[in-house]
Amino acid sequence: MHGINIIALMQTEQVRNCTRTNLDACAKMHDMDDAQKKTVDFIQRAMEKTGLDATNLARSSKVAPSTLTRLLNGTVANTLSARTILKIADFAGIPSPLSENGKIASKSVPVYGYVGAGEKVVPPEDCGQIDVTDAPMWAEDGTSAVIVKGDSMFPAYWAGDIVFFDADRRMPPDECLFMECVVYLRTGEAYIKQIQLGRNAGEFVLSSYNAPPIIDADIDWASPITFVDRRNRKR
């Protein structure tokens, strides 16, 4: 008899804990914005499809586990990046909430003229926008584009390639060493080059793949290249 009472008490406590957990989850969902709610629903569908919990789903998708668990626990104010969502969707084999009619959506970003890869290119005086182009949906805010002229960075970059970079992330050259960057000089030219140290402190060299380097370049700012659209390259 005592055993029956103990089992009944245990079952009652489990029900209470389950109810409390559900109420907590509902409260967290209530505090989320629409984008977070849709992302949580997407994660839960991926978990159901794969039979994995959030931690193992993240690891299998090559994502940091805390990225999912913190969102599910309601401890972050933002949602997942588009790149993370696509990784999870690809692993779980479910449609991405970013896709439309089976195609990944894109967004427009500004094009700020041309950069030289062999040719000396002087952008508009105000570096103003000359056009817009499509970038992948996972492009971060601040993503901008320039169009390549010349062939000194061939075969990595061809004339006509559209190169994307973060216009809000303008960095001093010593923070971009050995990176391929969009580089603006104080003399007004713009290039795609790899930045290397010069002979003296504070001096830098802009290196190309198949052209002489620019020695002691007076760099105003640089921004690492994030991705390239090669569909319009001139062959």
Descriptors:
235 residues; alpha+beta; 8-stranded mixed beta sheet; two-stranded antiparallel sheet; 5 helices; 31% helix; elongated
List the helices and strands and how they pair.
Layout: H1 2-31, H2 34-50, H3 54-60, H4 65-72, H5 82-92, E1 99-100, E2 103-104, E3 106-116, E4 131-136, E5 143-149, E6 162-166, E7 180-185, E8 190-197, E9 204-207, E10 219-229
Helix pairs in contact: 2-5, 3-4
Shape: elongated
Radius of gyration: 25 Å
Structural class: alpha+beta
Distance between the termini: 86 Å
Q: With helices defined by DSSP (H or I, 4 residues minimum), what is the helix count? A: 5
Q: Report on the biggest sheet.
A: 8 strands, mixed
| Helicity range | 25-40%
β-sheet strand percentage? 25-35%
Q: How many E-type strands?
A: 10
Describe this structure in words.
With 235 residues, the protein is of the alpha+beta class. Helices cover 31% and strands 26% of the residues. The strands form two sheets. Strands 4-3-5-6-10-7-8-9 form an eight-stranded mixed sheet, with no helix packed on it. A two-stranded antiparallel sheet has the order 1-2. Strand 1 and strand 2 form a beta hairpin. Helix 2 (34-50) runs parallel beside helix 5 (82-92).
Brief characterization of the structure:
With 235 residues, the protein is of the alpha+beta class.
